[in-house]
Amino acid sequence: MPLFLAQFSYSPAAWATFIKAPQDRVAASEALLKHFGGRLIGLYYTPGAEYDGFALFEAPDDATAAALEIADVAAGHLTRNRLTRVFLPEETGAILRQAAAAPSMAPKNPV
Asked: Global pTM?
């Protein structure tokens, strides 16, 4: 399955809720991913960084990954998110081989 990186920031209200009642967001993330046929690889927090945290997950395809991100944002506890498709080294090798076979797009030098 394709691999994705979802970076996110929580709303101030979400942080206030977590302070009052800490909760395991891994379980919620796993449930959402399972609904969409995906799998959580890891959920990580990065306080003080550009985003509050990120999740690494698998989803059946790009459209499914986008749908689950939209569903997560619609819940209202996130203020920002960024979804990025991640490629494994062997996938990157195949991508580079395809790129090598492409015709040149360089501008022609006028003479």
From this structure: 0.85
